[in-house]
DNA sequence: TGTATTTGACCCGC
DNA sequence: GCGGGTCAAATACA
């Protein structure tokens, strides 16, 4: 964010602020419409709240649509090549190219294109420091993704070896996500997991949306989202990037659910369809839970219960500022 | 037999 | 030159 030109940065802040205000309105609407289930547990509460929710839904949809529009605009501003960090461009470009060029890049990264398999050992282009974030937990965290261990090393001044994992779909889907797990201490056991890069793969094992992030104490530059693109791509009628549709999507509430600023798609000028940012709005009236789902053909971002929107957007603003 | 893990070698950034 | 990240052959496992 530090690299943002002042004008674009201002616009981003304005858009996010606008989105936040709209989200606050939305929260009120949803709460008034029966979002507060705890107060509607009497015999008539459920049906009446459903009616209220149904009545409020069109307006709520409109509000959420505006929220999503704001986010989309913000993203498009951030996609301005002048604003986008070199790092992200490079990283995403590599992701984009991976599927079609994985073999080529492997070769091109070698000093010699004609080498034996034995000589190719260790022939790779080490990624420059990319966006990372860390989690500490008593046990290595189950984050819903499939990982394959590809290395382990003793680290200087570290008591325990560090394990290296890559996404199982590195080769079949070109996913470049990796993580490192290192035990920090024995008793009580404590592991630090460092994630590097985000998943561009479909997570077939666990289709639910996983949001990886950092605690507030972490540097915001390392904030990241982990996405899942297993959901259908909505149309893009409402704006070049945005559309609304309806489906039923439920999200499991996880203990460590956090929302983070996603890394950005390539600049809009170079966008191909894979990187457009449509969005999807979901209202699950039956369960009286409200969700808005932002999805991209590459990634999906899920939001939430209405009460979370304020926090989420407020967090975005704080991060920007 | 196919897949995952282990482990030493290799390469790159600092 | 050193330390850390990745590769890939060898090995383990289901």
Automatic annotation (TrEMBL):
WRKY domain location:
136-200
Record's subcellular location: Nucleus
Q: Which Pfam families match?
A: WRKY
Does the keyword field hold Secreted?
no
A Gene Ontology molecular function term for this protein is: sequence-specific DNA binding
The record's PROSITE patterns line, in alphabetical order, gives: WRKY
Q: Which GO terms describe its cellular component?
A: nucleus
Keywords annotated in UniProt: DNA-binding, Nucleus, Transcription, Transcription regulation
PANTHER family, per the entry = WRKY TRANSCRIPTION FACTOR 21-RELATED
Protein name as annotated: WRKY34
């Amino acid at each position: 964010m530090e690299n943002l030109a002042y004008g674009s940065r201002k616009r981003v802040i304005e858009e996010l602020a606008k989105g936040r205000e709209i989200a606050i309105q939305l929260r009120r609407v949803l709460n008034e419409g029966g979002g507060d289930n705890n107060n509607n547990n009497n015999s008539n509460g459920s049906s009446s709240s459903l009616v209220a929710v149904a009545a409020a839904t069109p307006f709520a949809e409109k509000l959420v649509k505006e929220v999503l529009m704001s986010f989309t605009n913000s993203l498009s501003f951030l996609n301005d090549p002048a604003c986008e960090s070199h790092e992200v461009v490079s990283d995403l470009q590599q992701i984009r190219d991976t599927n079609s060029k994985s073999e080529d890049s492997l070769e091109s990264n070698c000093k010699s294109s004609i080498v034996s398999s034995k000589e190719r050992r260790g022939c790779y282009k080490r990624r420059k420091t990319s966006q990372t974030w860390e989690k500490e937990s008593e046990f290595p965290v189950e984050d819903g993704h499939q990982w394959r261990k590809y290395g382990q090393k003793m680290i200087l001044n570290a008591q325990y070896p560090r394990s290296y994992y890559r996404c199982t779909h590195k080769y079949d889907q070109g996913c470049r996500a990796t993580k490192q797990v290192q035990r920090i201490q024995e008793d009580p056991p404590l592991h630090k997991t460092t994630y590097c890069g985000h998943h561009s793969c479909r997570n077939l094992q666990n289709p639910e949306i996983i949001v990886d992030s950092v605690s507030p104490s972490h540097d915001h530059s390392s904030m990241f989202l982990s996405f899942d693109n297993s959901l259908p791509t909505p149309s893009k009628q409402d704006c070049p990037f945005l559309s609304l549709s309806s489906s039923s999507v439920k999200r499991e509430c996880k203990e460590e659910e956090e929302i983070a600023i996603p890394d950005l798609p390539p600049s809009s000028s170079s966008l191909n369809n894979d990187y457009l940012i449509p969005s999807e709005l979901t209202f699950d009236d039956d369960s009286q839970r409200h969700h808005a789902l932002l999805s991209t053909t590459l990634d999906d971002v899920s939001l939430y219960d209405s009460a979370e929107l304020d926090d989420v957007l407020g967090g975005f603003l704080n991060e920007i500022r």
